[in-house]
Amino acid sequence: MARRFGWHSLLLLLMAGCTGETVTAPGACPAYCVGITVEATDTVLSTAIAADSMFMGYVPSHTATRLMVSGAGAGESRAILRFYPFSDTILLNLGDTARRAVLQTDSFRVEIELGRRTAGVSGLRLALYRLPPTVDSLTTFETLDPFFDDSTFITDVAVPPADSSDSVKVTFPATALPTFSADSQKVAIGVALRASAPAFVALRSSEAGAGAFLSRFVKVDSVTGTPVSRVAASPPLLDTYVFQPVAPPGPGILTVGGAPSARTFFHLDVPRRIVDSSNVVRATLFLIPAAPVVAPPGDTLRIVAHPLAADIGAKSPVLPATADTARGSGGLAPPGMSDTVKVDLTDIIRAWRTDTTQAHTVVLRASPEGGSFGVLQFWSTADPTRRPTLDITYVPPISYQGR
Q1: What would the pLDDT profile of 125-175 be if each residue is shown by its tens digit?
Q2: Which residue of 46, 55, 186, 332 sits 20 to 30 Å from the alpha carbon of 197, by its own alpha carbon?
């Protein structure tokens, strides 16, 4: 389907340039003035995806830059914070070399950095629970579920509005960790979300340079028989999150997102007349979901397309995408969505015209990768009616009439 555009402004300038000093007479162009025909063509390339492949395991939840905490029901996820062990001795003053024995532990304080959170839902609270200090990156949602119980509840804290604060601090007595000594002074805490409506809160992780901290308020002897208060702080040894597992994709279905994250690679076969000679106005990849989008309640899964420096399979070097620096760009898919997902490829295909060595392959990934259990499952090229397609609007080389 072709659309012809009359470039009125350009033609008026050309006409004005051809009339010389006669400004009241009708425009009259001499022989060297030529007409210009500009056509923009919009076409759907149903076979532009020459090949596709999916690989999994890129970014696990324990190396993600954010920890997803959400609830409830099928979209529930919980954070795990395991801290470095405390010591039974402490330095009395900065610069001391001799350590003093800890006489007693009075209380603890957890400080957590917050990221994005559901807007418009009031009364959000983070609930803290005591977990076994043996939790690790392989611990599952089902394994930990019994520990999110009243018997292991520590305390909770209100989540501030997004425009007021990006951190929370909550102090609780030492009695809230009754097994602290028996656990060799190791502490692991689970974080769940309490909300009046489906919602999520993203916690910033140590991989983002803003992990949680656990402070221990203790008493030590300044001189024999004279105790003073001191504070010891412990960063996270492990910060991750667990979630209810998402059903694996069936035959002929590709996946983007999840944790560990999955990526899908597309090798594109776009006609050379478009890539080499035309000006690409817009290029959009259409993906038809094979199942409703899975994402934390209130969140939106963002799918970003990247070009590759070289196409060597699962470990292909990925180049930056425009979407990396433009918040909100990329294909957006809220939870439960079944409509076609659109991902912009305009800048990627335009770059092929100037860099002929670049691989004509793109990779789709979630952003931020591994920081959400959100998954998009869509039909592959194996399905002839629901396969991915590419919609391109382009302007062929300008045709000069009479030349």
Answers
A1: 999 999 999 999 999 999 999 999 999 999 999 999 877 778 999 999 999
A2: 332
Going from the C-alpha of 64 to that of each of 238, 260, 269, the distances in angstroms are 11, 9, 34
Which amino acid is residue 146, in one-letter code?
P
| N-term to C-term CA, the chain | 26
Q: Is 352 helix (H, G, I), strand (E, B) or coil?
A: helix
- What Rg do the C-alpha atoms of the chain give, in angstroms? 29
| CATH code reported for the domain at 39-60+245-400 | 2.60.120
Do the beta carbons of residue 13 and residue 235 sit within 8 Å? no
Single-letter code of the amino acid located at 42: D
Integer angstrom CA distances of residue 196 from 14, 161, 176, 200, 297:
65, 15, 26, 11, 12
Which DSSP state fits 322? G
**Claim: this prediction has a pTM higher than 0.85:** no
Q: Where are the beta strands (DSSP E) in 174-225?
A: 188-194, 199-204, 213-223
